[in-house]
Amino acid sequence: xxxxxxxxxxxxxxxxxxxxxxxxxxxxxxxxxxxxxxxxxxxxxxxxxxxxxxxxxxxxxxxxxxxxxxxxxxxxxxxxxxxxxxxxxxxxxxxxxxxxxxxxxxxxxxxxxxxxxxxxxxxxxxxxxxxxxxxxxxxxxxxxxxxxxxxxxxxx
Length: 156
Description:
The protein contains 7 helices and no strands. The chain has helices at about 1-5, 10-30, 30-40, 55-85, 90-100, 110-120, 135-140.
């Protein structure tokens, strides 16, 4: 009991109230720091790549670069067909070449978008008239290069 009388002096009570007020206002502001320290201690950041990580990334970059090159070759084949049909495709050829020059990891997505735009803009010759009859002689008159042509002739 004597300890309580010695400790509960006006000066000690005022100091205790001040410390309590500081803690009430400071703890919410400082609360993230101990959590951050505990997380950093429990889950340290990864140092470097795993032994096979560099090879996996290199192979993924090669695969993506090959996909853009393959898409460029497909677009060039479509442009060659359009040029054989008599269309002027010089500007589209230049755009396809620009897309191939963008075949770097940073701009690969833009290269694919540009190749898709060029592929959509390739001029195609007009489709011939397809008769609506189902006779065997009419099925033979349908040109072979048209999409949607029936393989077996007609319905049975």
